[in-house]
Design a protein that fits this description.
mainly beta; five-stranded antiparallel beta sheet; about 210 residues; 2 helices; single chain
Length: about 210
């Protein structure tokens, strides 16, 4: 009832989730003309963030590229390309976070070494115990698919890896889950600089 008739024409309601109340916003032509401030109901909330302690996950070995995905609230799978014996291979690491935001890491597990150098990796979650990795190799710039299981703090490859790219000229790639048995692979073709996409069907025994 306190809203002037001239303001009721453009009145709008909204739910303020911070105070759990319904509020009204209205435009007052009288206030605008006089130049006086429109009444405010509360001071805007300022939201910020803080950064925790940085921890090293490469275990003293040079790594080139990495990606990660959450599979539960406190468990993550990290995938890296890591130099080993002059070659750059794909490794997986399980990371867990406790209530104090401390991170603990499992041992790195070799997931793919079929080609000499993998320069780029991307990972997606299929379920709470399965992930799928797209690894870009410098050998012909091909993309290899790696289907892995995650049990407790152990990651392991389920089946033999397969080439999944349409073209042998990929320069970057990104894998995104669609559901528990399908993923979308998006990549850039380095020869013509085209962007391409393909759906990958995944089961426990094949890619």
């Amino acid at each position: 009832n306190s809203i002037p008739d001239s303001s009721k024409v453009n009145v709008r309601g909204f739910f303020d989730r911070h105070s759990n109340t319904a509020r009204w916003l209205h435009y007052s032509p009288e206030t605008k003309v006089l130049g006086n401030p429109i009444d405010t109901y509360e001071t805007p909330v300022s939201l910020g963030f803080s950064v925790g302690t940085v921890t090293t996950i490469a275990f003293g070995v040079e790594a080139s590229n990495c990606d990660c995905v959450a599979i539960t609230e406190n468990k993550f799978v990290i995938v890296i390309t890591r130099f080993t014996g002059g070659s750059q291979w794909v490794y997986g690491i399980i990371a867990e976070i406790d209530g104090d935001n401390n991170i603990t890491y499992g041992n790195p597990v070799l997931l793919e070494n079929s080609l000499n150098t993998f320069s780029y990796v991307s990972i997606c979650k299929l379920s709470t115990d399965r992930v799928f990795i797209a690894a870009l190799s410098d050998a012909g710039n091909s993309i290899t698919g790696i289907h892995c299981s995650v049990i407790n703090t152990t990651i392991s490859k389920l089946v033999s890896s397969n080439l999944v790219s349409i073209s042998n000229s990929a320069s970057e790639c990104k894998i995104v889950d669609i559901d528990s048995n399908r993923a979308l692979l998006v990549y850039n073709e380095s020869v013509n600089s085209y962007n391409s996409a393909v759906i990958i069907s995944i089961t426990d025994s094949m890619i």
